[in-house]
Every structure is written in structure tokens, then in C-alpha cells.
Amino acid sequence: MRRFQCYIDGKFSDGEACFESIDPASGRAWAEMPEAREADVDRAVKAAHEALYNGPWARTTATQRGKLLYRLADLVAAHAGKLAELETRDTGKIIRETSAQIAYVADYYRYYAGIADKIEGSYLPIDKLDMDVWLRREPIGVIAMVVPWNSQLFLSAVKIGPALAAGCTMVVKASEDGPAPLLELARLVDEAGFPPGVVNVITGFGPSCGAALSRHPKIAHIAFTGGPETARQVVRNSAENLASISLELGGKSPFIVFADADLESAANAQVAGIFAATGQSCVAGSRLIVEEAIKDRFVALLKQKAEKIRIGSPLDVATEVGPLATRRQRDRVEALVASSIEAGARLIAGGASPDRDGFYYPPTILDCDGIASPSLDNEFFGPVLSVLSFKTEEEALTLANDTGYGLAAGVFTQNLTRAHRLMKGIRAGIVWVNTYRAVSPIAPFGGFGLSGQGREGGMAAALDYTKTKTIWLRTSDDPIPDPFVMR
Ligand code: NAD
Description:
The protein is an alpha/beta fold. It folds into two domains: about 1-250 and about 445-470, Aldehyde Dehydrogenase, Chain A, domain 1; about 255-435, 3-Layer(aba) Sandwich (Aldehyde Dehydrogenase, Chain A, domain 2). The chain has helices at about 40-55, 60-80, 80-90, 95-115, 150-165, 180-190, 205-215, 230-240, 265-275, 295-310, 325-340, 375, 395-400, 415-425, 460-465; strands at about 1-5, 5-10, 10-15, 15-25, 30-35, 120-125, 130-140, 140-145, 170-175, 200-205, 220-225, 245-250, 255, 285-290, 345-350, 365, 385-390, 410, 430-435, 450-455, 465-475. Strands 15-16-17-14-13-18-19 form a seven-stranded mixed sheet, with helices on both faces. Helix 9 (about 265-275) links the parallel strand 13 and strand 14 (about 285-290). It is globular, with a radius of gyration of 24 Å.
């Protein structure tokens, strides 16, 4: 079995305990992971705090930070193949996707390397003649970063990149499900030459490791990605240290198809939107809202595509859908499909776990027109699409917004004015028109409502890891007048 370690204060070490990581393709243990508990968390946060205020990082210029980030980007690119294989092995995400995604993760680090020396303060046109007033932008402090199992290298890069650009230090908690790629990333952080304590990488379980990290008194900000229920616990934890918090949560994203759309293109995007990554994608377009006139034709096209999808070993480049990351997740998807069918949903494709080792579940389509199916309200985080139909544009918009979530939406139409009306009317942080699941380091990413708060990606994300300090300098040599009058 492979063994992984935590990275704390520039050193690799075992955790207070350890646990086995399960290969989702076989259902068998393949690696031993370090389990960080309260004492490890405390050590990591203290190392980050010391690095921020007293270590060499405190005297590192923004330009030097940028150079270190460029070095990390190059190392990620050079080791993308190895990292991809680890992520595939530990989470079951197919190698086709992990290879492409991790090569692109290097570009996220590059983007933030370029931003490091472009975070500027400002001079204020203050309303007093004898005062000069500036705003300095300073790192917000020690950041707790908590990520879920899917795309751990990607979800951590959108936090680590801007936080380092801003000069922060951090403790990154990898998910207990599939932590291998993130623990391996620590080796590249070390090789890039970041001073000890700047980036610490640990893993462990939510109620022990995650909770101890998010309520630690030396944490200034929590950058959390995960489900809404865990987010509520993290927000409660933050009541202790009063840390600021950004939340990237789940979704139940609508995918709207009008009769005038290019149906082949829309069907391919819908397949990408719900079956890629075996549906374990926060932006999964899990509610198809299709114009009634083309519903049968479009759903038949989707069924045909879904049934042709190659299910297999995630390490095989020909595989299109691999296993779900955990047994717990597969069982949850199975149970939700069963309760939806019980509520009246009609099964169009998939719907039964194949008889093989590993946590596989097939691409599944449920027709939910006219019924209150649990599949319409609950995020599966699995390859399950619920179908609804509409007659008018107004009805399509009402159905799209009929959710507490608001992460993403897709609109497929050739009608430009209608596309504009919908992109304004849909309540979601991202609207894709005639495309789906496109991301970039340059474009902000984040949700409305239960999908979270704060944005990752783009320049603003780096500014979010800073706080302003207001500096007042009196320019008069005259003695200060009346001390009892505020001026
Ligand atoms: P989760 O909420 O169960 O776990 C996420 C992380 O939180 C894990 O590292 C876990 O150990 C930790 N955690 C659990 N309990 C904790 C606690 N009490 N205190 C602190 N940390 C704790 O999420 P998951 O099931 O691993 O991932 C799936 C969820 O993540 C889905 O809802 C998905 O939509 C969401 N997600 C969102 C985005 C986004 O950018 N919006 C991206 C990917 C995944």
C-alpha cells in the first residue's frame, strides 16, 4: 500500500492517526493516509501564523511571491500526468478528465503569479488639507481551506493561487475521500521553494480535523467548498474565531433547451453537464427544462447518447464514465433514484447499479413532468438527469428559478433577444449560453442563494484575500489644536 504524509511547517510527517483510502474502481484499500486531528491542526495553524508574521515570507516582496507561484505552476505542469493518475486512482475520476484538468490547473497558478505584484493600494483625496491618507492592501491572515473530494487540485488552486498572490499563509485540508493528489501537491510546493509554514497540507475527517481547523482562534478566513449542510456547521464554527468566510456549495442547475436550438450541440452539452465526472460536479446541469414541442425528440437523442457512454476503469483513456468516489455516494444516488421512481418519476435510461466491483452507477434519466420528484430538489452529485418540459419562455424561467440553489444555468437557443432576457432573469452565479461547463482563471465562479457566497477566479478573488489598512499622516508642523475636538 502507498503511504502519504501531511506537510506541516515545511516538513512531511505522519498524522496523529491514519486511515485507509479506498480505490473506487475496485472497492479495495490502496493507500494509507495520515489522519490529522486537533494537535496536528494546531501545529499547522501555528506554523502558518508564525510564517505570516515572523518568517521570511513576511519579508518576501510581491514580485518574489509571483516568481514562486510561476515556479509552482511549472512544477504542476511538469507533474500533471502523475498528479492526474493519483487523482484518478483515489477518487475514480476518469483519467481523460483529470489529465486535462490538472494541466489547466497550472494556468490558474500562472494567472495568480501574474497578479501578485498588481495588487495595489490607493491614495485618498481626503477632505483635510493637512493630512495624507492611504489605503494599504495587506494579507487577510491565515486561511483555512477546506475542499471536497471532487477535483481537489482544481478546487484548491482557486484558493491557494489568489491567497499566495495576496501574501497570505494557509492550512489546506484535503477531503478524507481521495486526498492523495493534494498531499502530493505539497511536494511540489516544497520543491518550488515556499518558506516553511506558508502552505500546510493536511487531511482528516470533517467533525475532528475540519471542525478544529475552522474554529481555530488564529484563522482569519475560511475558504470552504462542499455541501450546504457542512457549510452551516463551518459557519457555526466561525462564530468562535469570527473569521470571514467564503462558501462554494452545491447546485441543482437548470439546463434550458428551446425548440430553435442546435439539438445535437445541446445534447452533447447536456451529456457533458450531467454525465461528465460521473455527475460529481457542483455545476452539474441536473434539471433539463426542454420545450414541449421537442421534448420527445431531444430526450430520445439523450437516451441514445447516454446508453452509448463507455463505463469502465477510470484509468483507461477510453472510459467516459467511471465509478462514483465512495460507496456512501453510490448508495445515496441509488436511494434517491428509488425514492424518485416511487414518487412517480419515469425511468428513461440507466437506473440500476451494474453487477461489478467498485462504486459504479450508470448514466440515468428520469422524466419528472407533472410530479413532485425528490430528484428535482436534491443534489445527487451523481449521473442522474431529471427532465421537465415547458410551453412558454416565462414558464421556462419560472422552472429554472424554482430552487434554493443558484450556482449555474445553461440556455440553448438561437434567439439572441430571448437569450439576453434569460441571462438576466435566471438567478445563478454563472449562465452559459449555447455552451456548458466552461471555466477559466480569468472568469469569476460562484453562486447565489444556497450555492454560496464569495467568488473564486479572476482578480477580485485575490483582493478578497486582502484587507485594507487606512494610514493617516499629518503633514502640518503646527501643534495639534484642541484635543477635545475630533477632527
Ligand atoms: P462535504 O460538505 O461533505 O465535505 C467537504 C469538506 O468539508 C470535506 O473536506 C470534509 O471533511 C469537510 N467537513 C465535513 N464536516 C466538517 C465540519 N464540521 N467542519 C469543517 N469541515 C468539515 O462535501 P462533499 O460531500 O465532500 O462534496 C460534495 C459537495 O461539494 C456537493 O454539495 C458539491 O456541489 C459541493 N461542491 C461545490 C463546488 C463549488 O465550487 N461550488 C465545487 C465542488 C463541490
